[in-house]
Design brief:
Blueprint lengths: L1 H21 L6 H9 L6 H16 L3 H6 L5 E2 L4 E4 L8 E4 L2 H17 L22 H14 L11
Antiparallel strand pairs: 1-2, 2-3
Helix pairs in contact: 3-5
């Protein structure tokens, strides 16, 4: 009897240690601030990327959730954003603060100026050859790595808060 208890305890400890080893690091407020300071918001894609990363860090959204958001899910008047369901998460609505609404509104203005069709995903490509296509998760992860290097962060920058 004592043997099965110790086996269960050992297994639980192993699984907990393994799970902790697999978790990505959570950035501090100072590191997140350094990431945003590394932005050069001179182009429309910079406005889009800043809004994407703000949603990731401020509201804890993951890459697949961010790229799945549709323009119809954003309601600036009610200050809400509907996040569609993914394979592991049900649909939900988040309340937005004024800073998030401001960033999303700037991206919506830039989208319109670029001529992106209204029914394209909220966060879509802004280059002439692929205008309005969904942004890929690998692009977002690469952008985070690039910003992390620019901000002199010495660790991985996961795409959520």
């Amino acid at each position: 009897m004592g043997r099965s208890h110790s086996l269960a305890t050992t297994r639980a400890a192993f699984l907990r240690t393994r799970a902790e080893a697999c978790l990505p690091p959570i950035l501090t407020r100072e590191e997140i601030s350094a990431l945003f300071d590394a932005f050069r918001a001179t182009r429309a894609v910079d406005v889009r990327d800043k809004a994407l990363l703000w949603l990731a860090y401020r509201h804890g959204l993951k890459c697949v959730q961010l790229i799945a958001i549709d323009t119809s899910g954003y309601d600036p008047n009610r200050r809400e954003l509907e996040v569609p369901p993914t394979a592991r998460c049900a649909q939900f609505v988040i309340s937005l603060d004024s800073m998030t609404v401001d960033m999303l509104d700037r991206w919506m203005v830039a989208r319109k100026a670029l001529g992106i069709r209204p029914f394209a995903p909220l966060f879509c490509t802004a280059t002439a050859d692929s205008l309005g296509q969904p942004v890929s998760p690998s692009y977002l992860r690469g952008k985070l790595s690039e910003l992390g290097r620019s901000a002199d962060l010495e660790r991985r920058c996961p795409a959520f808060g």
